[in-house]
């Protein structure tokens, strides 16, 4: 059995004749045999650049990245060596439990993301055992013969055997934005990577034409692999992650001020330095919602599972929340607003022609499998009945369709050998290239557009006796007629548009179809209120003019890939979050430019690679589910943030104040950490909570000003009841240090655990907004554990003391008064916030997604961890 030559790489293969390369790789025109494929798969492995599977040690490393955690561990170690060993052990146990909770939640979230990502597959056609078969790109081996078509991502390094007007965009490798023409002939030795015209390289995109090549190198042995292996696959942060980081920095500043001032004050009061240091660090850790990353990861993982049940795959978990921020969706028309099941209706002849001639030339220029219109024409009853029209004709050469020309041309020969150039494509483009177009033909075209039908025009001209079709020859055509297709509006699309509107999401259509057809579909679905602009119109607008035009335009018709991307970029700079839904190669630039790129499982590989979200069904109603889910996740995250920061700030403020007038620490460092751990653990059920309907009606964004104001208003309210507890313990129960600490521990844990029921909603809790059962049970459970802990043997180990029954009666009254006061404060706070809501300001550019490669065997997702919350 012949195996590939070990010294044959793409550089050396490019200098050899194609036949010699195929011979050295042991392949023929029939491709490899199944036995050869199996042997080479074992020899060379998967055609994947790298594997990015979830690794427990990596997740654990992110949990341990917090600088506050390092300081706490260092202080515990110091405490151990100076004799305070019990405190050091207790702190170590609490830190371990906290890290363990965060690790468990984030690891499950990463596994969920990996499972979802693995379902997004990329396939290509390879010649094996004499026939073309569709295979997963990861199964390709050296010696496979691969077919390339418009929009394909080249799946391996190929030595080209045959091409037809093939051009590849090689920006990912060479940085050159212009597509490179490809020729099958060998190049001179020493030719640079950018000049290897006889090869198609992994990761590049077929910009135009078709080709066939033999696989020379796969996986990390490709040119792309050599570059990518040394690069980080970490995505730049999304707005959600940026918001988390900014919020974390706010907490760092607050913690730094509190920690420093408390440490200095305790040292000035002649407290032991180690006790002062541990207490100060415990204050710093206590004000930080340590399990915020776990809450976020749990919310995102649960959201991804719910979206998967709705037939949506999320390639990056954090993009679920970004989807909830969307307030404008740009979408294509076919398959989204229409059924996508295109059917051929009729042939409309130009004056002097007849319908059978239009059908004959249309069928002769059909490339089955290239696009939906050609497939609909070829499989139509009219085509089946008119197959005899093709007798005696042969198709010789093809100039494939591309998105700049919007045409496809073929040279066809009849039985007598007469050669004819048949050009078919967008009717405006074909008519521009025709001579003496009758007014009746223009009127017929306008009537079809007004009816909402899709139209393809067909023109002819004599072809030279020799040569292949070229773009310059697509002129001075004779119009034969029009091919008319029906793509009716999708049932349920109108209701989905209404639902998106109710969620505050506007929808605009970017289409390669004509403006009248798109406007007719939009009108049928109730998407009205704006006009249409063509790609030609856009060329006369600067960015400021385009930004103004977007607001009053519903349909952008006959737009190029570059124009789609420009529209998206301009809208992002104007404010709000932008999503783009597309599935073709011409959508890839816009998918990259959007805040959230959305494609479909049946889309082209380059579109799926550029997207953040993959729809298994092309349905706007599914998108509405995703928007609502993203907002629900964000709302629950903010619940935890508001509760955690206000309660923790209040408790730490109380601790700082009490430490100044008490002759003992108001709470031991281990008790502060335990309090924080129990509270955080009780909030891990927040991702299961319901969200009020009004919170889903509009996008929500990180507002550090609101968080800061909330903390400064409700934290002191919490402190009022802490100081009331201090007074009760000192003046009513005459408590010593252990009993005092026990009383404040129980009171602080009860108030901050139960305040969740008031802060989780802007409505009246339990009456107009009910929490989920898991959240109710965990919040009550945390408060209950705190009340019972001083009565247990473990409580004595932790330095607690049994409390009298009178204290619990007082505590119940204080909790009721506290919750009532919080409710009144909440109403005043949000009334004031509504009165001062600033206008929606434009945002700077958001996260930039470099082009991902599908040559990875698992997820590239990186769920937020403690590093995100504290960096």
Structure description:
The structure is a single chain. The chain is an alpha/beta fold. It has four domains: 10-52 and 126-228, Distorted Sandwich (Calcium-transporting ATPase, cytoplasmic transduction domain A); 64-114 and 239-310 and 631-835, Up-down Bundle (Calcium-transporting ATPase, transmembrane domain), CATH 1.20.1110; 312-338 and 490-618, HAD superfamily/HAD-like (Rossmann fold); 343-486, Calcium-transporting ATPase, cytoplasmic domain N. Helices cover 48% and strands 15% of the residues. The strands form three sheets. An eight-stranded mixed sheet has the order 8-21-20-19-9-16-18-17, with helices on both faces. Strands 1, 2, 3, 4, 5, 6 and 7 form a seven-stranded antiparallel sheet that branches. The chain has a six-stranded antiparallel sheet with strand order 10-15-14-13-12-11. Helix 24 links the parallel strand 20 and strand 21. Helix 10 (273-287) runs antiparallel to helix 25 (620-661), helix 18 (493-502) packs parallel to helix 25 and helix 26 (669-682) packs antiparallel against helix 30. The longest helix is centred in the C-terminal third of the chain and has 42 residues, at 620-661. It is elongated, with a radius of gyration of 33 Å. The protein starts with 9 loop residues before the first helix and ends with a helix.
């Amino acid at each position: 059995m012949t195996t590939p030559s070990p010294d044959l790489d793409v550089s050396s293969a490019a200098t050899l004749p194609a036949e010699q390369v195929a011979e050295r790789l042991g392949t023929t025109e029939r491709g490899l045999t199944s036995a050869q494929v199996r042997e080479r798969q074992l020899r060379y492995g998967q055609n994947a650049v790298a594997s990015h599977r979830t690794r427990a040690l990596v997740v654990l490393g992110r949990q341990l990245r917090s600088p506050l955690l390092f300081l706490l561990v260092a202080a515990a170690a110091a405490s151990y060596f100076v004799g305070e060993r019990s405190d050091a052990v207790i702190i170590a146990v609490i830190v371990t439990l906290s890290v363990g909770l965060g690790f468990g939640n984030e690891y499950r979230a990463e596994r969920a993301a990996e499972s979802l990502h693995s379902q997004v597959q990329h396939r290509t056609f390879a010649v094996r055992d004499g026939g073309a078969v569709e295979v997963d790109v990861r199964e390709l081996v050296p010696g496979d013969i691969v077919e390339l078509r418009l929009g394909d991502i080249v799946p391996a390094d190929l030595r080209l055997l045959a091409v037809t007007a093939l051009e590849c965009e090689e920006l990912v490798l060479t940085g050159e934005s212009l597509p490179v023409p490809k020729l099958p002939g060998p190049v001179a030795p020493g030719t640079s990577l950018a000049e290897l015209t006889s090869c198609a390289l992994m990761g590049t995109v077929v910009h135009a034409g078709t080709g066939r090549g033999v696989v020379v190198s796969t996986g990390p042995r490709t040119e792309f692999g050599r570059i990518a292996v040394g690069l980080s696959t970490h995505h730049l942060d999304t707005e959600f992650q940026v918001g988390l980081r900014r919020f974390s920095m706010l907490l760092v500043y607050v913690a730094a001020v509190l920690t420093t001032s408390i440490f200095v004050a305790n040292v000035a009061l002649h407290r032991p330095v180690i006790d002062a240091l541990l207490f100060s660090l415990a204050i710093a850790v206590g004000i930080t919602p340590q399990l915020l990353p776990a809450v976020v990861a749990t919310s995102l993982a649960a959201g991804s599972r719910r979206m998967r049940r709705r037939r949506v795959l999320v390639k990056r978990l954090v993009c679920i929340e970004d989807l909830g921020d969307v307030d404008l969706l740009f979408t294509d028309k076919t398959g989204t607003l229409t059924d996508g099941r295109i059917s051929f209706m009729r042939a409309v002849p130009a004056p002097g022609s007849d319908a059978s001639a239009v059908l004959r030339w249309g069928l002769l220029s059909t490339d089955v499998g290239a696009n939906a219109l050609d497939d609909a024409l070829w499989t139509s009853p009219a085509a089946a009945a008119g197959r005899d029209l093709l007798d005696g004709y042969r198709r010789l050469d093809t100039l494939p369709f591309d998105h700049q020309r919007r045409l496809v041309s073929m040279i066809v020969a009849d039985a007598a050998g007469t050669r004819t150039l048949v050009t078919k494509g967008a009717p405006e483009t074909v008519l521009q290239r025709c001579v003496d177009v009758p007014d009746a033909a223009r009127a017929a075209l306008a009537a079809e557009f007004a009816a909402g039908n899709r139209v393809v025009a067909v023109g002819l001209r004599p072809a030279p006796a020799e040569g292949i079709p070229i773009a310059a020859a697509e002129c001075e055509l004779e119009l034969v007629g029009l091919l008319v297709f029906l793509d009716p509006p999708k049932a349920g699309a109108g209701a989905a548009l209404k639902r998106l509107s109710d969620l505050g999401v506007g929808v605009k259509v970017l289409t390669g179809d004509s403006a009248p057809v798109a406007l007719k579909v939009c009108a049928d679905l109730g998407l009205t209120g704006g006009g249409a602009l063509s790609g030609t119109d856009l060329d006369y607008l600067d960015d400021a003019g385009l930004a103004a035009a977007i607001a009053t335009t519903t349909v952008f018709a006959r737009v190029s890939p570059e124009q789609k991307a420009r529209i998206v970029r301009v809208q992002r700079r104007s404010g709000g979050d932008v999503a783009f839904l597309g599935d073709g190669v011409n959508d890839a630039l816009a998918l990259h430019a959007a805040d959230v790129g959305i494609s479909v499982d049946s889309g082209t590989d380059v579109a799926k690679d550029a997207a953040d979200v993959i729809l298994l069904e092309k349905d706007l109603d599914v998108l509405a589910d995703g928007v609502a889910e993203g907002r629900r996740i964000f709302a629950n995250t903010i619940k935890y943030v508001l509760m955690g920061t206000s309660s923790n700030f209040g408790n730490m403020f109380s601790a700082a104040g009490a430490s100044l007038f008490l002759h003992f620490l108001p709470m031991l460092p281990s008790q502060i950490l335990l309090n924080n751990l129990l509270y955080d653990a009780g909030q891990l059920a927040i991702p299961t909570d319901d969200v009020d309907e009004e919170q889903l009606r509009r996008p929500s964004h990180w507002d550090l000003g609101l968080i800061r104001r909330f903390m400064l208003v409700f934290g002191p309210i919490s402190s009022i009841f802490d100081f009331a507890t201090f007074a009760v313990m000192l003046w009513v129960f005459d408590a010593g240090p252990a009993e005092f600490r026990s009383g404040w521990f129980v009171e602080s844990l009860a108030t901050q655990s139960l305040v969740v029921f008031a802060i989780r909603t802007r409505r009246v809790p339990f009456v107009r907004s009910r929490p989920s059962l898991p959240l109710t049970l965990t919040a009550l459970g945390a408060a209950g554990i705190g009340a019972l802990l001083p009565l247990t043997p473990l409580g004595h180990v932790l330095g607690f003391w049994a409390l009298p029954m009178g204290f619990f009666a007082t505590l119940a009254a204080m909790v009721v008064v506290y919750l009532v006061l919080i409710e009144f404060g909440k109403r005043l706070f949000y009334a004031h916030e509504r009165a001062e809501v600033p206008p929606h300001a434009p945002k700077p550019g958001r996260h930039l997604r470099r082009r991902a490669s599908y040559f990875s065997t698992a997820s590239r997702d990186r769920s937020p961890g403690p590093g995100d919350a504290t960096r």
